[in-house]
Specification:
Blueprint: H1 2-28, E1 33-36, E2 39-43, H2 44-51, E3 54-58, E4 63-67, E5 72-76, E6 81-84, E7 87-90, E8 96-98, E9 101-105, H3 106-117, E10 128-133, E11 143-144, E12 149-150, H4 151-168, E13 172-175, H5 185-194, E14 199-206, E15 216-221, H6 248-265, E16 270-276, H7 279-282, E17 288-295, H8 299-305, H9 308-328
Parallel strand pairs: 10-13, 10-14, 14-17, 15-16
Antiparallel strand pairs: 1-2, 2-9, 3-4, 4-5, 5-6, 6-7, 8-9, 11-12, 15-17
């Protein structure tokens, strides 16, 4: 009896699968898509066609430049960093060269590059924004003793100045903390979920043992099955689906528009848009990004960040990025 019930379902499944395979077969066999080390790659010539871009091959074909009326993109064989309008955008895996053509990882075309270049649909209007001042309480974050700068104080200062400006733009705005309070990463995320946030922005500042390190960088959650920017090989955890992966495309767009605004506003190295599986982003029920707004360990940067004028400049750039994301992401 059980076999009689399962047999029609099995046949139905095989029929549906075969139909799907027939539909996909021409695409799978296309020279525009190849497999390399178990990863699917797309030919940049096809990307160029989709973008209606002019293509130039540089450095004996190891570097391609794609450009149209709005954007210029540079890809280099063996590099994980592409340059989009002079902003480094880090991919999950490097660009590869095969038979004189360059190929981009398919996932990065779909969830990194394409979302930036094309307006995407979102499921709800942006009304509520949760701002997360990093660190706090017993966790001071980065410290510059000589300049008397504590990351936990700067992140709170930025968020407190952001809140009234965003409210004037018509958003409801909430802070995960409004004083020098310690919160776990999970508590910050849970707060955003309880407020039914439409966007989550976590504010941080950087530090390094290399006091020459400087610049601004922005993080979006790592794509499913890819390693974060700090690593080259995916591990078992990378292959697990996390709630943040529901918003991969929107995470990318949010990070890009905020980072682009920041990079344009400051004469400092553009460290680009990167990927990380930060706990504070992992279980969000909305798009999110984590901003690293400069190095407290860099003497000149620290001197600037100690001034209210610099903080206000950061705030204005973040507001502009959020506004651009909100307007260019259609419903």
């Amino acid at each position: 009896m059980l076999n009689q019930l399962l047999l029609p379902a099995s046949r139905k499944f095989r029929h549906s699968f075969n139909c799907l395979l027939i539909l996909l077969l021409p695409h799978l066999l296309s020279a525009d898509v190849i497999q390399h080390n178990g990863i699917t790659y797309r030919n940049l010539s096809e990307v160029s066609t989709k973008l209606r871009a002019e293509t130039r091959q540089l450095n004996e074909g190891n570097t391609w430049e794609l450009s149209n009326k709005r954007n210029k993109l540079t890809f280099r064989s063996g590099s994980r960093a592409i340059h989009l309008n002079d902003t480094p955008v880090y991919l999950g895996y490097p660009i590869i060269k095969s038979k004189k053509s360059l190929y981009i990882p398919e996932l990065d075309w779909r969830f990194t590059l394409s979302p930036i270049l094309h307006a995407s649909k979102r499921t709800r209007q942006i009304k509520r924004i949760v701002l997360d001042p990093g660190h706090g309480g017993k966790d001071p974050g980065a410290i510059n003793e000589s300049a008397k700068l504590y990351e936990k104080d700067l992140t709170l200062a930025v968020c407190k100045k952001l809140k009234p400006i965003l409210k004037k733009q018509g958003f409801e705005v909430f802070l995960t903390r409004s004083n020098d309070k310690y919160l776990t990463l999970e508590e910050r995320t849970q707060y955003a979920r309880s407020k039914r946030a439409d966007l989550f922005i976590s504010i941080h500042f950087n530090a390094s043992t290399n006091t020459n390190a400087e610049g601004i960088e922005t993080f979006a959650y790592t794509l499913l099955s890819q390693p974060s920017t700090s690593r080259n090989i995916a591990d078992q955890n990378d292959r697990r689906f996390h709630p943040a992966n529901r918003y991969d495309s929107q995470n990318t767009r949010l990070a890009y528009f905020i980072h682009k605004s920041l990079a344009r506003s400051f004469d400092t190295p553009n460290r680009g848009i990167k990927r990380a599986r930060f706990t504070v982003l992992e279980t969000l029920a909305c798009p999110g990004a984590l901003l690293e707004l400069g190095f407290l360990s860099h003497p000149e940067s620290a001197a600037k960040l100690s001034k209210n004028k610099e903080i206000l400049k950061l705030v204005d750039a973040i507001v502009e990025g959020i506004q651009t994301y909100s307007k260019e992401t259609r419903i």
